[in-house]
Amino acid sequence: MQKDIHPAYQDVTITCTCGEVIHTRSTRGSFHIEVCSKCHPMFTGQQRIVDTAGRVERFRKKYAKHAAK
Fold first, then answer.
1. pLDDT grade, residue 69 (50/70/90)?
2. What residue numbers bound the domain in which 47 lies?
3. Strands 10-16 and 31-33, how do they pair?
4. Which of 24, 12, 19 is nearest to 39 (CA)?
5. Residue 51 pLDDT greater than 70, yes or no
C-alpha cells in the first residue's frame, strides 16, 4: 500500500440554519447546510418553504398572470 495518498479524515462540524450542530468526521471539512433532519418537513410533519435567494417569490411573480386566467 502507498503511504500519504489518502485525504485527511478529520473531525468536522456541520451547522444547519435552524441552529442544529452535528459533530462527525469527514474529508471535506466543516460546512453549513440549509435543512437537516430536525427541520426537514418530512421528519417534522410541518410544511415549510425553503426560499433560496428569492426563487419562490420570482416563481410566484412569473406565473401570477397565468393563475388569473
1. low
2. 10-68
3. parallel
4. 19
5. no
Q: Would you call 40 exposed, middle or buried from its count of C-beta atoms within 10 A (0-12, 13-18, 19+)?
A: middle
Q: How many domains does the chain have?
A: 1
The CATH number given to whatever domain includes residue 37 is 4.10.80.400
Any domain includes 42: yes
Residue-averaged pLDDT of the chain: 82
**SS3 label, residue 22:** strand
Q: How far apart are CA 38 and CA 17, in angstroms?
A: 11
The pTM of this model reads: 0.54
Q: E strands of the chain, at which residues?
A: 10-16, 21-26, 31-33
